[in-house]
Sequence to fold (318 residues):
Amino acid sequence: MSIITIHFYLITAAILLDLLIGDPRWLPHPVIIIGKCISFFERKWNKRRQKKLKGVLLTITIVGGTYGCTFALLSFINFIHPVAKLVIEIYLISTTIAMRGLHKAGIEVATPLLKGDLKLARKKLSYIVGRDTEDLPPQEVVRGAVETVAENTVDAIIAPLCWALIGGAPMAMAYRAANTLDSMVGYKNEKFEHFGWASARFDDVVNWIPARLTALHMWLFSWLVPYSLKRNALAVTLRDAKKHPSPNSGWPEAMGAGLLGVVLGGKNRYKGVVSNRAKMGNPIRSLEPNDIKKIIVYMHGTWIIFLLLLFLVTINLS
Fold:
């Protein structure tokens, strides 16, 4: 049996586990440990001189350490019993993906909006975005949720699955470590501009191919969705993806905008500071609460297409 076939079974089981239980509080989550390690080194190293060099060392330490620890743990468990090793590896991969969590987060914004409870919708949106949400009108709440679900389809689903396909749980966990680093220190502000530079750039690299695969998988799935503007979406993505300040986030967001026939991007506020993002998509119609549910459908469509294509590959390798 080829390594790709083995990883296909591991990935399939991990997806089913995530869809079944998500991230229950009673189970230990590796990202919490990774976050504590990042915080420890950040306090020790993010001061005085050579911050950029220390940031490079931080990235190597956290990503390499996560890979090494995961590999060592699985090797030790395999020595005890191979079946136990498979169970733990499936669980570890499942902690790097978040289909259930992303679905729930989107629905928790859409549901109060559809019921006319704008205040609760703003509150729920604040849990999943960094922008200010207190005064957002309904359409901007929808935009925030749609953009977040589309963007996180890369780093919460397709990217960890891609890296798990290449290197099993150790590689998927290393990816999650890189992504956690970016979310904690990869900011362009006075505190992290130099120290977080390596973390932010490395996250861009490991998401580069998955981001484009995400957009492609969304588009392929759209041919199964009757309300998709599939012919419009490809042109919109190729035209607008590069407008996003991130080299990767623009691909799923532009594809989402094209498929829904709406405009994403525009003015955001972060702690009162205005950030103007380039607009993506064609203004065929206005955003509405049900668009959150529609982008969730596309989110699920990406991993379904990913798994289907991987299944076809494994058949040919068998």
About this structure: The longest helix spans residues 138-185.
